[in-house]
Amino acid sequence: MTFLTISRLEKSFGANRVVKDFNLEVEKGEFISLLGPSGCGKTTVLRMVAGFELPSAGRITIAGKDVSRLRPNHRNIGMVFQAYALFPNLTVAQNVGFGLKVKGAPAREIAARVAEMLALIGLPEMGERYPYQLSGGQQQRVALARALAPKPQVLLLDEPLSALDAKVRVSLRNEIRAIQRELGITTIFVTHDQEEALSMSDRIVVMHQGVADQVGTPFDIYNRPATRFVAGFVGTLNTLTAQVIDPASGHVRVGGSDLVLGRALPGGEVVLGLRPEMLRLGAEPGMASLTGTITELDFLGSVIRLRLDLGDQRLAVDLFNTTRATPPRVGDSVTLALDPADALVIGA
Ligand code: ADP
Ligand code: MG
């Protein structure tokens, strides 16, 4: 059953249309990410779901009820922001209990719920501390506990990991996802970080200039990007111009190599998208091949990253470092194998 629906949502600030015909259906317990570059409208969508911003048009429903015009405190939503928005003058326990206190819950009930939440975030002994006595990662866990304490129907997270250093960020990804699963709470997570979105989400909404370009599983978004923007924004993508030799069989010529893609193409020129990891060193039976010269080689341990000249075009290739293979060298002319089914046709 669809738990949260956003239909035909629009938001303009003056003449600036920042959210355009935004539609989304979220299942109960689902973890959805809004992914896109800075300024594309992610926070604005989230703030409209929370009720901090009213839509210019469109509807938001939660559990079948239209909440579009309700005030934030009537929507039963928990929110976590990028900057630690903890109250600095309150203890951790008082921060976590804040929402329940505002609702007028009895002290004993608040204390029990606070203890439960602190255990959930793995900080059971920290109730008497003040925010400044905690690390950034601990503060964000407390912010999460504070958002969850009143048992919201929906959890909204706006770049909650962006201000943290890399290691903490990765461990908190897993922790947030584990807590979200344990509670089964419907969650919308905003990020500009594709790795965060790919690793955490049930589904991702890729946003671009106020529009949802594609909604899909991480696998779909990466492997079957719906637009050129999605293809370029999520993951690394080589874009190569190819001359179409035979539209029916998908025979194209790219930088001096011939590929048969096995699917119909328009005539003239097309733009092919190739992920660096789609290519392997050496010719393989049944596979298409590209020939080029290595201009750069970065040894990264598990991966060897190459740059090649293919005639007049450039290609980045990531090879797995297998100990059996003799590594290629700069200046080598090499053949690369490609499954033609992998090649993305991202524009004509
Ligand atoms: P994101 O979170 O994806 O970085 P935002 O939703 O914060 O993007 O902003 C989208 C656009 O809306 C930006 O161009 C921003 O300047 C504009 N915007 C956001 N909030 C306001 C506001 N209160 N008044 C005017 N313009 C705003
Ligand atoms: Mg934002």
Q: In words, what does this structure look like?
A:
The chain has 348 residues and is an alpha+beta fold. The protein folds into two domains: 2-233, P-loop containing nucleotide triphosphate hydrolases (Rossmann fold), CATH 3.40.50; 238-347, OB fold (Dihydrolipoamide Acetyltransferase, E2P), CATH 2.40.50.140. 24% of the residues lie in helices and 36% in strands. The chain is built from eight helices and 20 strands. The chain has helices spanning 42-50, 92-102, 107-120, 136-148, 166-183, 194-200, 218-223, 228-233, and strands spanning 2-13, 16-27, 31-35, 57-62, 65-66, 77-80, 154-158, 186-191, 203-208, 211-216, 238-246, 251-254, 257-260, 269-274, 280-281, 288-299, 303-310, 313-320, 333-338, 344-347. The protein has a six-stranded mixed beta sheet, with helices on both faces. Helix 2 crosses helix 3 (107-120), helix 2 packs parallel to helix 4 (136-148) and helix 3 (107-120) crosses helix 4. It is elongated. It starts with a strand and ends with a strand. The model has no long low-confidence stretch (mean pLDDT 94). Bound molecules: adenosine-5'-diphosphate and magnesium ion. Adenosine-5'-diphosphate binds next to strand 2 and helix 1. This is Putative spermidine/putrescine transport system ATP-binding protein. GO terms for molecular function: ATP binding; ATP hydrolysis activity; transmembrane transporter activity. InterPro entries: AAA+_ATPase, ABC_SmlMolc_Importer, ABC_transporter-like_ATP-bd, ABC_transporter-like_CS, Mo/tungstate-bd_C_term_dom, NA-bd_OB-fold, P-loop_NTPase, Transp-assoc_OB_typ2.
